[in-house]
Amino acid sequence: MSAGPRLDGRRVLVTGAGQGIGRGIALACAQAGAEVLVNDLRAERCEEVAGEIRSAGGTAASAPFDVTDYDAVTAALAAHAPPDVLVNNAGNAGAEGFATRARFAETEPADWEAFLRVNLYGVLHCTRAVLPAMVSNKWGRVLTVVSDAGRAGDPGGAVYGAAKAGAAGLTRSLALENGRYNITANNISLGTMRTPLTEPLWAEQADSPQAKAILQNYAIRRPGVPDDVTNLVLLLASDQGSWITGQTICVNGGFSFAL
Ligand SMILES: NC(=O)c1ccc[n+]([C@@H]2O[C@H](COP(=O)([O-])OP(=O)(O)OC[C@H]3O[C@@H](n4cnc5c(N)ncnc54)[C@H](O)[C@@H]3O)[C@@H](O)[C@H]2O)c1
What we know:
The protein is an alpha/beta fold. It has a single domain, classed as 3-Layer(aba) Sandwich (Rossmann fold). Helix content is 44%, strand content 14%. The radius of gyration is 17 Å and the shape is globular. It binds nicotinamide-adenine-dinucleotide. Nicotinamide-adenine-dinucleotide binds next to helix 1, helix 4 and strand 5.
């Protein structure tokens, strides 16, 4: 049994949990005793992670859907008991990772859609779908994985940052509207992580000028890994996190600081 906050008896939905940070969060929640609903756009990834959890003795179900499609979200979730904890993790520009980076002045409205649909609308859809049951149960947790791109700015990633900042703003209103029902809402703001999304940068070009230039901006000169995030998720998702709400907590190796 894992030490630290426990989630026994809680149902946790993790979006975009087929790989990377979401997968790490799903595995950690299961290890802490939660029943995990593993979402991803890619059904085979959901199955794989849910299978991994079950093989380790945990409880998990697979819930493939596209967070950008509200009808698909509600239809898929109707087949499962409502979650007590939602981790809005699905992000980036789609199933294949970040779209081309470009200065905002060089982008067109059509380029913005992929960022806004996953990083902002995806969060709106999943949160709207699960919140009424949390209110009825008078207990809930909404955690949203955002990015320092939305706090500190990101030249070349302006719309991604704007979408993440929008999702972070939703959290603050959710906290105020739902605290009376023992529902907390918090953001976890990440710096550059080592996940399948960014793996080429670290695995193939770890000594490249680009990788070195990125790490120069970090007090702790390494990219983050999913395990850097999971203990915070467990705390915020547990009963011990009941007086932490409306916050954006940075897990970023000292890339930027919150005052
Ligand atoms: N990797 C980083 O450096 C970094 C930095 C800051 C913030 N983040 C954020 O962390 C979160 C996870 O990032 P990651 O690096 O693990 O990404 P990743 O691309 O490795 O994994 C994301 C998963 O989400 C799934 N997904 C994508 N679009 C989806 C959709 N519409 N519906 C359902 N699932 C969908 C993908 O299939 C994939 O399995 C994202 O919100 C990302 O924006 C990542």
